[in-house]
Amino acid sequence: MRVPQIVAFLALMLVFEQSIAQKKDLNILIIHVDDLGASDLGVYGSDFYETPNLDRLAAEGMLFTQSYAAAAICSPTRAALLTGKYPARLGITDWIRAKFQGYSTSGKEGEYEIFEDRPMKTPKIQGYLPLEEVTLPERLQSMGYRTLHIGKWHLGEEGFHPEDQGFDINIGGNDLGQPPSYFDPYISSNPNPHYVIKNLPARQEGEFLTDREGSEIINFIQNQENRFFIHWAPYAVHTPIMGPEDLVKKYQNKQPGIQRNPTYAALIENLDQNVGKVISKLDQLGLRESTLIIFTSDNGGLVGNPDNPVTVNLGLRSFKGYPYEGGIRLPTIVSLPGQIPGGASSDIPIITMDWLPTILDFLETDSNVGDGQSLKSILLDQGQLPERDFFWHFPHYRGADVLPYSIIRSGNYKMIYYFDGEGVELFDLVSDPQEKENLVNQLPFLVSEMKSKLERWWEKTNSRLPVLKEN
């Protein structure tokens, strides 16, 4: 063998060995924030909130501009992330009520909620993530990963908590959808024995909850000898909206933009600070280049009181809980230095279910599972994916103006189908990103085609559907 051939062979072997080492040593950190809106980070165009650490993370990795939650509310998206499946396939299509709330909307398939003043009865939901589902942490445990869940869980009561679904350690996760308080000892002003964060005993009065989460993660990381998977699901930035006093004062003295809530701004900046602390620890330990970081949210930003909004989803229509882009579009950043190019951006539509196959693909194991697609080729090579349709399903009445609906996005078009006779909305998201012009009358054939796709998807996923009440 000639010298140039030997050099080429050795170089090829070095690349192969590096690939094996990267696969062997890859750690995974998912930061799955609660209620963070699509424009709530500086890098995504916020006109008020400051997020220097997350902006830096985007500069070191890839930012997605058309990233979708699996649902416009939390529990369904969380179930989708852990299983890679559409919420409709799991029967978890609404947020799961916690025990302290004293009522339930959960039930078996074929059971319904009935409203006196509504024309349809709507299906009850699966009230927990079934143990039969093979979750991402269970898959990683089988590969030798040490697994940590920290923060919000919201996928069932006792017996269905993180430690029952593949996590070696659970700090803070139970049936709660929001914290009683953000300040240690994390107790509500109206105490309830069921309204308590699990495995998070008081340790320093007044310590802010997201600071505590960040501290616990750092403690976990620096005591690991094996590969690890961390599912960090901050209770931030969900209600009750609270923030560290110094940061609240900072934003009270700052010129507001369209976004203008100083306490919410403090809550976001505190989250950003803790993301920065965790990344700094990874750097100090020499783990940054072997840790895949996925930062995303579970649904769009919450408006709350329109006269004093929690946040504003700049450039998008509506907010959490609604079928418009403001309810389902997310900020999403992915970083793996040395492999994912820094400062990259992708406008390819993606969705929550994609993260499970993406992680499995990075680990070079079977990624053909669930309803998502691996994004590895996009992340490493800025490649493309075959065009696909996206679906959402919320067959419930909620509040005065949320009607049972399903959504399909096909290419640039998005159709919202309302079950109770309120009609159909069709939007071109490229020419009309704020969903102002309903094209249903101009494009009746497209509406018919998309409705047929939706019906086939309902059947494929065994979706629970609302039905008209009998007279």
UniProtKB/TrEMBL annotation:
Gene3D superfamilies documented for this protein: 3.30.1120.10, Alkaline Phosphatase, subunit A
InterPro entries: Alkaline_phosphatase_core_sf, Sulfatase, Sulfatase_CS, Sulfatase_N
Keywords for the protein's UniProt record, in alphabetical order: Calcium, Hydrolase, Metal-binding, Signal
Residue ranges of every copy of the Sulfatase N-terminal domain listed in the record: 27-363
Necessary cofactors: Ca(2+)
Name of the protein this chain belongs to: DUF4976 domain-containing protein
An MF annotation (GO) of this entry: arylsulfatase activity
The family this protein is said to belong to: Belongs to the sulfatase family.
A Pfam short name: Sulfatase
Highest taxon in the source lineage: Bacteria
